[in-house]
Amino acid sequence: MEIITGGVTAAEGFEAASTAAGIKYQDRTDMALVYSKEPCVAAGTFTTNVVKAAPVQWDRQVIDGKGKVQAVVVNSGIANACTGKEGLGYCEETARAAGEALGIAPESVVIGSTGVIGMQLPIEKVKAGVRVLAEKKNGSLDNGTDAARAIMTTDTCEKELAAIIKVGEKTVTIGGMAKGSGMIHPNMCTMLAFITTDAVIGQETLQKALSEDVQDTYNMISVDGDTSTNDTVLLLANGLAGNPEIRYGTPEYETFAGALHAINEYLAKKIAGDGEGATALLEARVEGCENREQAKTLAKSIVCSNLTKTAIAGHDANWGRILCAMGYSGAQFDPENVDLFFESKAGKIQIIENGTALPYSEAEAAKILSQPEVTVIADVKMGEAGAAAWGCDLTHGYIDINADYRS
């Protein structure tokens, strides 16, 4: 696998566009289009929140029906969640407008929305934006990056990555973009991710690849513990690479799944590190577990702990908060066997051994915790399994952003 420059337009046959439709923001682009020259097999995972936004309901119908997808239309600013039949009708109107503008079937259009819950979309602005997007689309990498910017809400930067692999004698490309900064606690945030590939692969195999990988990537991040109404991850494959079909359980599948994992993990970490008001990406690695589920439960509990997150914000090596978070996670372990470390580009320091504090330099620990990426490593000494989870520190900035989010 080779990481390359690009995002959703990196793969053969995919185009993108962005525009400022004035849906909520008046000073930025707020709509994006991803389009494939050929219909795609599609896979998706969606929020487990009982309250599901209209675009989630629309997209699930398309994905569950195993229909071909040729376009994704995304808006930011308004989530189109808790909007009743009117909101769902707006999805249909958007798909119909995209179908007319692009010359494709409306049922081949999927929708993404992110922003304020409870507001109705200004549908005429949305439909006008769709027409502009159809005219502006092209396959340039710049257009892909612009699309990634257009789907941002409180994000501070666009999030995209691409990679190439060899399948047989053919080069297969996978690229993706994502957004997410607050209301991030996926359980498949407001989290959207769109992955494109030119691979030849069946729909069921594609869905298995995505569903399996989401468990170790997007479902292992948390900013604030809130699972959004709009969480959506879509994976589209148009087959233009012309490779021998990738089949589940083969070496070629493992290669494809590995590249997909690299992109999903990168995007997930970018979302976690760009949490609202955050100054640091917090990674928790738990080692020495009996099985993966134990490790994942412990790691996720660490990054979800508000007290741990505030300690990281203050560069305070308050290790008791971490051990406490592990203790209420529901996973069983012996706290008197735990070793704990802090690590960053500034170095690595052991804080506790066998559940007891070691003598260490508070100044050195603060220096390590002052970096933009900080890792907590916990070894519970019970086996060989491990897992990682990602979050961020919790600062006053989070309150500042969310106290007046609707204004």
TrEMBL record:
Location in or out of the cell: Cytoplasm
Keywords in alphabetical order: Acyltransferase, Amino-acid biosynthesis, Arginine biosynthesis, Autocatalytic cleavage, Cytoplasm, Multifunctional enzyme, Transferase
Reaction equations catalysed: L-glutamate + acetyl-CoA = N-acetyl-L-glutamate + CoA + H(+); N(2)-acetyl-L-ornithine + L-glutamate = N-acetyl-L-glutamate + L-ornithine
Pathway: Amino-acid biosynthesis; L-arginine biosynthesis; N(2)-acetyl-L-ornithine from L-glutamate: step 1/4; Amino-acid biosynthesis; L-arginine biosynthesis; L-ornithine and N-acetyl-L-glutamate from L-glutamate and N(2)-acetyl-L-ornithine (cyclic): step 1/1
Active-site feature positions: 190 (nucleophile)
InterPro entries cross-referenced by the UniProt entry: Arg_biosynth_ArgJ, ArgJ-like_dom_sf, ArgJ_beta_C
Positions that bind substrate: 153, 179, 190, 276, 402, 407
EC identifiers of the protein: 2.3.1.35, 2.3.1.1
Main location per the UniProt record: cytoplasm
CDD domains: OAT (cd02152)
Family annotation (SUPFAM superfamilies): DmpA/ArgJ-like (SSF56266)
One GO BP: L-arginine biosynthetic process
Gene Ontology cellular-component terms listed: cytoplasm
Record-annotated site: Involved in the stabilization of negative charge on the oxyanion by the formation of the oxyanion hole: 114-115
MF annotations from Gene Ontology: L-glutamate N-acetyltransferase activity; L-glutamate N-acetyltransferase activity, acting on acetyl-L-ornithine as donor
NCBIfam families according to UniProt: ArgJ, PRK05388.1
Functional summary from the UniProt entry: Catalyzes two activities which are involved in the cyclic version of arginine biosynthesis: the synthesis of N-acetylglutamate from glutamate and acetyl-CoA as the acetyl donor, and of ornithine by transacetylation between N(2)-acetylornithine and glutamate.
Oligomer status and interactors: Heterotetramer of two alpha and two beta chains.
Family, as annotated: Belongs to the ArgJ family.
Annotated HAMAP family: ArgJ (MF_01106)
Protein name (database record): Arginine biosynthesis bifunctional protein ArgJ
Organism annotation: Mordavella massiliensis
Lineage: Bacteria, Bacillati, Bacillota, Clostridia, Eubacteriales
